[in-house]
Amino acid sequence: MRILGVASATAALALGVAGNAMACNIKDFSAVAECDDNGKGIITVTDVDPSGVKATVSVYLESNGADAKLVGEETVVGTREGATVSFSEDWAPKAEYRVHIKAANNSVDEDIKPNLVAPAEACTTTETPPASETPEPSDTPSPSDEPSDSATPSPAESTTPATTGSNAPSPAAGESNLAETGANSNTPVIAGVAGAFVLVGGGAVFFGMRRRGATKA
Fold first, then answer.
1. How far apart are CA 141 and CA 123, in angstroms?
2. Number of domains in the chain
3. Are the CB atoms for 56 and 75 separated by under 8 Å?
4. Cβ atoms within 10 Å of 210's Cβ, excluding its own
5. What is the CA angle 49-51-53, rounded to 5?
6. What pLDDT, in 10s, does the model give residues 104-124?
7. Strands 96-103, 116-117: parallel, antiparallel or unpaired by DSSP?
8. Could you tell me if residue 104 is inside a domain?
9. Does pLDDT of 188 surpass 60?
10. Beta bridge pairs of residue 75
11. For 150, which DSSP code?
12. pLDDT tens, position by position, 140-186
C-alpha cells in the first residue's frame, strides 16, 4: 500500500507540473507596433499558448498614465506556432499603449508588461492616389510642341521688297518742284499770254504795212 501511495503521489505531481506547463500564461502573449504592407500603422498581438485557451485582447492608448481611448478588442485562440490579432492604429512615434489579456478560464487577467511603446519613426503611406486625382493628358500642345517662332519671318525678313531711296538730290528748301513734275506749273498760262501778244503784234504790223501801201498808191 505504501508503494502504491507513493506512485499515486508521483503521478499527481507529474500531472500537476504538466498542467501548469500547458496552462495559459501572460508570458505567452506579446505585442508590437509596426507598419503593414501599405505603410499603415498596426498593433499586432501574438499568443503562443499551446493549451489553446480563448483569450480577449484589449488595446488602449495611454496618455499621462491613463487610458485615452480604446483602440480595439479582439479574441484569440493560442497555438504553439503562435496566433495573432492585429489592430489598425495610426500610431504616433513613441506613443504608449496598454495591452490587457483576459483568458476565458480566468487563468490570465492582466496587462502585458511593460506597456507597448511605438517606434521612434512613423509609417510612410504608399497608397496610390485615386484615379480621379491622377492628372489626365492634355490635348493642348506644350510649348515645346508648338511651332517655333523662328519659322515665321520677322519684319526684317519680310518678302516685300524694301523701298529704296532715290539717289537724286532733294530740292533745296524754298525751291519749287515744278521742274521735276510739271504739275501745278504756270508755264501754260504764261505761254498762252505770250502767244496772244505775238498774234496781236503780228496783226498790228500786218495792218500797218497794208495801210502804208495804200497811202503810197
1. 40
2. 1
3. yes
4. 10
5. 80
6. 999 999 999 999 999 999 998
7. antiparallel
8. yes
9. yes
10. 56
11. G
12. 656 555 555 555 555 555 555 555 555 555 555 445 454 445 545 56
Q: How far is CA 176 from CA 63, 124, 168, 189, in A?
A: 107, 92, 15, 17
CATH code, domain with 75: 2.60.40.2150
- For the question of whether the overall pTM of this predicted structure is more than 0.85, the answer is no
74 beta partners:
57
C-alpha cell of residue 162? 524694301
**Is 87 part of any domain?**
yes
CA pseudo-torsion sign 119, 121, 122, 126: negative
Could you report the per-residue pLDDT of 134-144, keeping only the tens digit for each?
666 666 656 55
CA pseudo-torsion sign 56, 57, 61, 63 = positive
Length of the chain counted residue by residue: 217
Range of the domain at 80: 22-117
**Mean pLDDT for the chain?**
76
* 3-state class (DSSP) for residue 200: helix
Q: Cβ distance 68 to 61 under 8 Å? A: yes
C-alpha cell at 202: 503780228
The torsion angle over the Cα atoms of residues 64, 66, 72 and 75, rounded to 10 degrees, is: 130
DSSP 91-129: PPTT-EEEEEEEETTSS-EEE-SS-EE--SS-----PPP
Tell me how far apart the alpha carbons of residues 212 and 191 are, in angstroms, rounded to a whole number.
31
